[in-house]
Design brief:
Layout lengths: L12 H8 L6 E9 L2 E6 L2 E7 L1 H6 L12 E4 L9 E6 L5 E5 L7 E6 L3 E7 L6 H14 L2 E7 L7 H11 L4 E4 L20 E5 L6 H9 L24 E4 L5 E4 L13 H4 L1 H7 L16 H7 L5 H51 L1
Parallel strand pairs: 3-5, 8-9, 8-11, 9-10, 11-13
Antiparallel strand pairs: 1-2, 1-4, 2-3, 4-5, 6-7, 12-13
Bound molecules: guanosine-5'-diphosphate, magnesium ion and zinc ion.
The site of guanosine-5'-diphosphate has 18 residues, from α5.
Length: 360
């Protein structure tokens, strides 16, 4: 096996500096896949299976404290000759794409860590939805990665210029690329974001063509496409397997299969709705809810036809969702804290009992 240059797959000085804190007996690696408790980690000697140490697992208070795909970690070996490697430490994430797990009370899940560019994929036929773009943008801005909108299936759209104008009006200051799998150069606009050492993630509804795009970039079919068919959408999310792939032309990409609607774990509306936030500063009341307050600049903009009402409704909806998610997040932290205290008290009592017994 050739030696892998970890810089090619996203390593930077920042991680190396942090790694030196952990001494000489551990090695740097990047999580490339996860399957339940077993991870795959790319080290300088290749991709190896790994699991987290008991200590890391014990100190984790929620799922976000566990390694996720894209994470840089410290492992105890670089090859798998002697069984699974042990992941001892998780290095600080520079970006982190998070979502709320559908149906779960308050669990959020890391979709991917240390991503530079997130391609928000949307097809120009069935999946086209401006409100969804606003949602995805709010999530990606929060992640600290750079969003780029990748429109797919351009071949199935005959009013591209209208669509582009609509999208640009909701995706303020975000770059938009158009792609099609029907022409051989239909994905070349993505290439400028995919350089050696850069990591990109593809997110978007099932069936929009994420895997197809990645296969084109890889130059071969590494991902199965057409997993989900319109006619029987449900129950066909066979793969929920996320993996980092190293592109032949440099750069690392991550497919995110099997995701339904992306629910907010946290979001940053200040960039995705910069226009509304700017208007709000002109409201008469500082804490204006833009409902029935007098001299509301947001309501006025809607009346004047400057701000589309649907955009404003979506803003309110996402804001509400964010509040709920935040409430639930703080609840978890508080509960986890309480649980720890109870456990600690329990073990203290045990210790006391033991020492009392000893005295007698
Ligand atoms: N017409 C057309 N079909 C496409 C395009 N991209 C993908 N498809 C088709 O859309 C279906 C779903 O694609 P897939 O890559 O599996 O979507 P994913 O679920 O986002 O990974 C497949 O049948 C693809 O062949 C495109 O640009 N144009
Ligand atoms: Mg796919
Ligand atoms: Zn107002």
């Amino acid at each position: 096996m050739n030696k892998i240059d970890l810089y090619d797959i996203g390593l930077s000085e920042r991680f190396i500096r942090e790694a030196t804190m952990y001494g000489d007996n551990l090695y740097l690696g990047r999580v490339s896949a996860q399957h339940k408790d077993i991870y795959k980690v790319i080290t300088e000697k290749g991709e190896i299976p790994a699991e987290v140490s008991g200590k890391l697992s014990y100190s984790a208070s929620s799922t976000v404290d566990y390694p996720a795909v894209g994470d840089w970690v410290m492992v105890d070996r670089v090859d798998s000759k002697s069984g699974n490697a042990i992941i001892h430490h998780l290095l600080t994430r520079k970006s982190c794409l998070e979502r709320k797990v559908a149906g779960a009370e308050y669990t959020s899940q890391i979709i991917a860590a240390n991503i530079d560019t997130v391609f928000i994929c949307m097809s120009l036929n069935n999946d086209y939805n401006l409100r969804r773009i606003e949602r995805y943008l709010s999530i990606v801005w929060e992640s600290m990665a750079m969003p780029v909108i990748a429109l797919t299936k351009t071949d199935l759209c005959n009013d591209l210029s209208i669509r582009l104008r609509e999208i640009k009006s909701v995706a303020l200051g975000v770059e938009v690329v158009v792609t099609s799998s029907m022409s051989s150069d239909g994905y070349t606009d993505l290439l400028k974001y995919l350089r050696k050492g850069k990591t990109s993630a593809f997110i978007g509804s099932s069936g929009v063509g994420k895997s197809t795009l990645i296969n084109r970039l890889m130059g071969k079919d590494v991902l199965s496409t057409k997993e989900i068919r319109a006619a029987d959408d449900k129950g066909r999310h066979t793969t929920t397997y996320r993996q980092l792939l190293v592109l032949p032309g440099g750069g690392v990409v991550l497919d995110t299969p099997g995701m339904r609607e992306l629910q907010l774990a946290s979001a940053d509306l200040s960039k995705s709705f910069a226009d509304i936030q700017e208007l709000a500063e002109k409201c008469y009341f500082r804490d204006c809810h833009h409902e029935s307050e007098p001299k509301c600049a947001v309501k006025k903009a809607i009346e004047d036809g400057i701000l589309p009402p649907k955009r404003f409704e979506n803003y309110k909806k996402l804001q509400q969702e964010m509040k709920c998610a935040e409430r639930k997040n703080t609840m978890t932290a508080a509960q986890a804290e309480k649980l720890k205290t109870i456990e600690m008290m329990g073990s203290l009592n045990e210790q006391k009992k033991v020492s009392k017994k000893k005295k007698r």
